[in-house]
Design a protein that fits this description.
Layout (H helix, E strand, L loop, with lengths): L6 E4 L12 H12 L4 E3 L8 H4 L1 H6 L3 E5 L5 H14 L4 E5 L1 H5 L1 H7 L5 E3 L4 H13 L9 E5 L2 E4 L30 H6 L4 E3 L2 E3 L8 H5 L4 E3 L2 H15 L6 E3 L8 H14 L5 E5 L6 H9 L2 E9 L3 H6 L14 H20 L2 E8 L6 H14 L3 E6 L7 H9 L3 E4 L2 E4 L16 H21 L15 E4 L6 H7 L5 E4 L11 H5 L35 E7 L30 E7 L14 E4 L4 E3 L8 E2 L4 H19 L21 H33 L1
Parallel strand pairs: 1-2, 1-3, 3-4, 4-5, 8-11, 11-12, 12-13, 13-14, 14-15, 18-19, 18-22
Antiparallel strand pairs: 5-6, 6-7, 9-10, 16-17, 20-21, 22-23, 23-24
Length: about 700
């Protein structure tokens, strides 16, 4: 049995609900290891209920839990912290990251389960906190912390940035590396399909008004030495064991120091590591010579932060220069845009993939500015670009300016963000090279591929059994918060229906007549426009829709319900609604049977809870339980129902048994009609497979 950790780190990823790796936490773990304090990071990518996921915490009995907290995942941090305190009331819960740095008092007041916020760099501060806990001392005077002492909040002075002055340019080298110390194991990350990140520097000297990363570093930059960087990459290369995997350099601006960037590239070329690298930098800090050197060092993709193609807007956000009265034609900003055009073309010629970052909704931006931005991107033709909407984060100069007006800010999970723009940002189309649009199309292709394979029986167990529902649809946001808190997973998508008196009325036409519709709590921050595609096998009979697709526009509201967090919050907050009139983004919710080989209803993976607390497996079903019962009891009852139905139909003797969804709730369709359709479809699939096999055989003969 391994040594029990004194501190366990958790990073709940808001994008997928997993407990993922986090590079900042790994640096702290390596630093604690150097001080002979055992800590670790809890990684869990399985689809389980929160109580099941946190079982290892109970078994390992750490003295402290540390969260990496961003504005985007705070609602998950809050929910998990509450559950941890229920299970382990004496454990000390720490929060670090940008939100703990700039919104420390806000989240400590909002979340009584958090004990200490670690502001800024966490290595030395966390070591001191664990040392105090070991010796039984209090932490009230530790630099770089904000903590709760009784009913008061104590905000101690900032901790000075770490400096290793004796090491010259490698001012960060004394901090232990998570790779060289064995904290991060590249092969494990590859097998779990997780990005491998490295940092060669911390901070940025520029003063862009929207950037909280530069604000955290207080507009300074510190470096690791070239020796340290090459050593880390060599360990990563060895750990990959021949697997090709891109390495992401997470510096804010890798080429900020040209001499240092050149030295690193030459050292990598000499070491012949042959790694594939990705990095980000400013488009005005590279030229042909440096781009060619980066390519030979293994860099195959660069993200240029363009932000806007308007010289006026670039000046407004201090992207190029700060505190200088502009001349009549914004000469410096125009030079910056010219550099973008030149260097994008050069990089593409050299063989480097280029991604641009574009932010829409910047201060003073008009609809015409947005169109000019898109036209500029279209003309220079990068491989893709990030279509972002402005988010104003605490700690930035822009946040302070917006806070003075107040009308530009509203609250989201107690955290502020912009709520007013000069025009409707959804009027701007995404170009075909939009990263978000490509990602959406890719996900749809994968989904269609998997559904097609499942339909012909090649993946009979594509969706493994899980202990928590994948989707929960609520007819009312006030329904069953206590039941949800016990049974949902971090990955569970919670959808709230509003304005429909009956589920059967929830259709496209019904949605268009209503302004309030649906929210996915986990994905509400996503600004990706998705188009759901599938390959339905079924038919329409007497007006019964086999598949319903509802397109929804995302709008911001004053509050978001903390469903599945705390029972007492139910009914005290209003949900975030999709509103077609004042919207920022799009999402799609699909429901209704596609009659594939794995119906979510059969394993209770999707549940519907009506206003009366009754639980249904699908829109056409009768209630199979209520929120006074546990999920295990409901699943047991439903299992008996399915076995009884399959036995009466003779499903186990049917030729199409491995290719049928075995729908239990047919609506207006008779069982005879349903079974006849599935058998007919099965025979057509056999013919298709025979044709495919014949074509493959002929191709093999031709090649020989």
């Amino acid at each position: 049995m391994g040594k029990q950790p004194e501190l366990i780190f958790l990073f709940p990823n808001h994008e997928n609900g997993n407990l993922d790796y986090q590079l900042g936490a790994s640096y702290i773990i390596a630093c604690l290891k150097q001080h002979h304090i055992h800590s670790e990071q809890l990684i869990n990518r399985s689809f389980m209920r929160l109580a099941d996921v946190l079982d290892p915490l109970i078994n390992k009995k750490p003295q402290a839990i540390g969260f990496t907290c961003y504005d985007t995942n705070y609602f998950l941090v809050k929910r998990m912290a509450h559950k941890i305190k229920e299970l382990m009331p004496k454990v000390i819960i720490l929060a670090g990251g940008p939100t703990a740095t700039f919104s420390d008092a806000t989240i400590l007041k909002d979340c009584p389960d958090l004990d200490i916020c670690v502001r800024g760099e966490g290595e030395l501060t966390t070591c001191e906190i664990l040392g105090r806990i070991r010796s039984g001392e209090n932490c009230r005077d530790i630099l770089g912390t904000t903590l709760r002492m009784g009913t008061r909040l104590i905000r101690n002075p900032d901790r000075p940035f770490f400096q290793d002055r004796a090491n010259g340019i490698g001012t960060l080298d004394t901090l232990p590396s998570p790779y060289l110390s064995g904290v991060l194991k590249p092969f494990d990350m590859v097998t779990q399909q997780i990005d491998i990140p490295v940092v060669t520097s911390r901070g940025c000297t520029y003063r862009c008004t929207y950037c909280n990363s530069s604000a955290i570093s207080k507009h300074t930059v510190r470096y690791h030495s070239a020796d340290r960087i090459v050593s880390e990459l060599a360990i990563i290369k060895k750990g990959l064991r021949g697997n090709p995997h891109p390495i992401a350099i997470h510096d804010d601006t890798f080429t900020l120091n040209r001499k240092r960037a050149t030295e690193i590239c030459r050292r990598l070329i000499k070491a012949k590591l042959n790694l594939t690298l990705w990095l980000r930098t400013r488009p005005d800090l590279v030229d042909k010579e440096l781009l060619e050197l980066l390519y030979h060092a293994g860099v195959r993709e660069i993200n240029f932060g363009m932000e806007s193609a308007s010289p006026r807007l670039l000046y407004n956000i201090h992207r190029v220069r700060t505190g200088i009265t502009p001349d009549n034609d914004f000469a410096a900003e125009k030079t910056y845009l010219r550099k973008i055009r030149e260097n994008v073309k050069l990089a593409k010629t050299i063989g480097i993939r280029i991604t641009l970052g574009a932010i829409f909704g910047l201060p003073g931006e008009t609809f015409r500015d947005g169109l000019k931005n898109l036209n500029f991107i279209r003309r220079i033709a990068p491989h893709d670009y990030r279509h972002y909407h402005l988010i104003v984060y605490p700690g930035t100069k822009l946040y302070e300016e917006y806070r003075k007006t107040k009308s530009h800010l509203c609250r989201r999970n107690r955290l502020s963000f912009p709520a007013a723009y000069r025009y409707d940002l959804t009027r701007l189309p995404q170009l075909k090279c939009s990263f978000q649009l490509k990602k959406s199309n890719y996900e749809n292709k994968i989904y269609t591929f998997l559904m097609t394979r499942a339909l012909i029986g090649l993946y009979p167990n594509e969706f493994e059994r899980c202990t928590a529902p994948q989707d929960i649809i609520l007819e009312d946001e006030k329904t069953a918060p206590a039941w949800l808190s016990r049974h949902v997973a971090l990955q569970t998508r919670i959808i709230v229906l509003e304005g429909a008196s009956r589920f059967s009325r929830f259709t496209d036409n019904d949605h268009r007549s209503r302004s309030r519709a649906v929210i996915s709590l986990r994905n509400y921050v996503s600004h990706i426009s998705r188009r759901a595609k599938s390959t339905p096998v079924g038919f329409k009979s007497k007006g019964t829709a086999i598949r319903k697709t509802i397109r929804l526009d995302l709008a911001y509201s004053q509050n978001i319900p903390d469903l599945a967090m705390k029972t007492e919050l139910a009914g005290k907050t209003k949900p975030l609604f999709f509103n077609r009139k004042n919207s920022l983004s799009c999402d799609i919710v699909t429901d209704c049977c596609r009659w594939d080989t794995h119906c979510p209803a059969l394993d209770c993976k999707r549940l519907i809870i009506n206003r009366n607390g009754q639980i249904l497996p699908c829109f056409n079903a009768k209630p199979i339980g209520n929120t006074a019962e546990t999920l295990e009891v409901i699943r047991g009852r439903f299992k008996n129902l399915t076995e009884k139905t399959f036995k009466s139909r003779g499903c186990l003797r049917c030729v199409a048994r491995d290719h049928c969804s075995r729908c239990l709730f047919l609506g207006n369709i008779t069982e005879q009609s349903y079974c006849a359709t599935k058998i007919k479809h099965y025979h057509s699939l056999l013919k298709q497979l025979a044709d495919i096999s014949l074509c493959n055989l002929l191709d093999m003969i031709k090649t020989k």
